[in-house]
Specification:
With 306 residues, the chain is an alpha/beta fold. The protein folds into 2 domains: 133 residues; 156 residues, no CATH class. It is built from 13 helices and 7 strands. A 5-stranded mixed beta sheet has the order 1-2-3-4-7, sandwiched between helices. This is Transposase YdaD. It comes from Nocardia terrae.
């Protein structure tokens, strides 16, 4: 069964295949600029009882000729994958008579190191086949923490957020993406907000993203906004709904501040925790969230305040 993380990566590369061009350019990889990209069927099954399905299969046309790009999202090392990947590469090469490249996207350095291989198939005495994936992960996809950079390249910023899900600095990356989404077309923002939520899943970073999105529900209609709207409907009156949403925004931001401090290993006293959770001012909470991404102690949040 395809997980939400796999589905997010699948949709990101399908809808915005140009993202790998810019990622490859940043890594100085020798791939020419795509002239066109076509989505190909990802079902590679040949024998009926055995299902073989790559996450995404793209045909990339360049001025140096076409090639195939197979995209896989990988959450951990898996001893069964080398045989599957070897099958994918051999099958599409035979079927389309085009040279394939396997791109594996990871969220942690250890999995990325394993996936990069080379993964050898054959007895100890003789290697019959070598699978050498191209890997994107937190080790080579730069974290995007500048809002202008994020606005200029939302797809790559989304990929950055997903691949850095386990980083201590994820709070700053997600805050940057959330701010950037408010500066682009509303429909586009919805798509990338949903992709980010799918890609982060139920991880702590995913929870932080859903909390950040409570600040502006106008374009975010997934799990968080549905929950808050349901709470609003149960309260009945329009005034009650408004107050409930405001409280939900403040609570979400307060939890985001505490989560960021916790991820960075900063101790939070009971008094500081109470002060943060009892704050109902969204602007102040946003300022605290900014400070939390670089603070060395919890008191840094309150410096200069009465």
């Amino acid at each position: 069964m395809v997980s939400s993380k796999h589905e997010a990566m699948h949709r990101l590369f399908q809808s915005h295949p140009e993202v790998f061009e810019r990622a490859f350019a940043a890594l100085n990889l020798p791939f020419p600029k795509p002239l066109s990209v076509a989505l190909l069927p990802n079902d590679l099954t040949e024998i009926e009882p055995l299902e073989r399905r790559v996450d995404t299969l793209l045909r990339v046309d360049t001025n140096e000729g076409p090639f195939l790009l197979l995209v896989e999202a990988q959450g951990r090392d898996d001893k069964r994958k080398p045989s599957s990947w070897a099958y994918y590469l051999a099958h599409v090469y035979a079927k389309y008579d085009l040279h394939p490249v396997l791109l594996v996207v990871c969220q942690d350095v250890a999995t990325a190191a394993w996936a990069a291989g080379p993964l050898r198939i054959g007895p100890r005495q003789w290697t019959s086949l070598v699978v050498h994936p191209l890997v994107l992960g937190p080790h080579n996809v730069a974290p995007v923490t500048d809002v202008c950079d994020a606005v200029n390249d939302i797809p790559l910023t989304t990929l950055s957020a997903i691949t850095h899900a386990n980083d201590a600095n994820i709070g700053a990356i997600l805050k940057t993406l959330a701010t950037a989404l408010q500066k682009i077309d509303q429909d586009d923002a919805l798509i990338f907000a949903e992709l980010t939520e799918l890609g982060l899943g139920k991880s702590p970073a995913g929870n932080l993203w859903r909390q950040l999105m409570t600040v502006d529900l106008s374009f975010f209609r997934s799990e968080t906004s549905q929950r808050l709207r349901a709470q609003g409907r149960s309260e009945g009156l329009a005034e009650g709904r408004s107050e409930g949403l405001a409280e939900g925004r403040a609570e979400g931001l307060a939890q985001a501040v505490l989560h960021t401090l916790d991820r960075r290993g900063i101790a939070v006293s009971s008094d500081a925790r109470t002060r943060i959770m009892s704050c109902a001012e969204a602007e102040r909470l946003l300022n605290w969230l900014d400070v939390a991404t670089t603070a060395t102690e919890v008191d840094d949040l309150f410096r200069g305040e009465p």
